[in-house]
């Protein structure tokens, strides 16, 4: 099911869609060496294969960890004899210096177009000499819709897929297959193939792949109990609301359901959102620790990912809460979207060009660092909004309580006429 051309690539439209960078390279036949990095099963090898198929260049695949310098020499000789070769080098972060030194001159003269694939951050894991000769592109997890498209294509493709088999995939099984594989198309297609080839046909000769079969073949339990799959989103909703409500046991229960279904992506996204939306300025420390826990979970994967995630959930649940940040930005956006905004004060406008002063731009601006305590009274909001209070501090945590005191001192020093409305009074 590997794509034969760039048009057949599933997902990654930020790279291969119309007008995007890799599509432009292929259309212009001006390929440069690149590194594709991202989670497993998201299309790194497929993009390389599609580039080769679209340009008609020879395509070879090696592994930086297991293939020797001799295999690289064979590819180099082929490139000398027949012209440009596209080399997909998997696990490029494990490329040794002797292999790297051999490759570099071939990358320089353009005989070998290197496409390195890695799950590691190339800015950390890959030698600068290789990085400087490649463009780096991030490959992202596929959406459920992307995987569903590829699965349906596999079911009807008689040449490369399962189209010759009398298969029927139920809607519940399709939903679970696309969701539980967490953006990993290879896992989805492997699970589908195993299900198709290991399920006994019914009395009519049809192979029915239902939810139970898919659960067994991908080893992920489904949370779907209704036809439309709403139960999954109900669990995600209950997960966030339990953390917001400071119930650690309920939050762990719902996260356990999501872990059992293999939905690491939803857990990570919810935790990052909760950390800033529901805890926010009451405890900024926990937001930073949540980010670290999510990064750790992504690196080690399930089942071990449950450990840093559990730490983050308990910490978030038992932390003081504040939604003042999201309330503040939404209040500002509401004014802007309703047209309630004014002109930027002249003294704040850009003055870094000839003639700006003649237009009154930047005149009388006071540089705060020239004053005691690096602050001086000065208007910043547009005149029609000068008395606006978007930020309404809460005092559930010591940090935001201190922020409130500073906020009020500054407002008082600015001598804003409108009285402050304290939500907590």
From TrEMBL:
GO annotation terms (biological process): DNA synthesis involved in DNA repair; DNA-templated DNA replication
Keywords: ATP-binding, Nucleotide-binding
GO molecular function, one term: ATP hydrolysis activity
Domain AAA+ ATPase: 30-142
Family: Belongs to the AAA ATPase family. RarA/MGS1/WRNIP1 subfamily.
Protein name, as recorded: Replication-associated recombination protein A
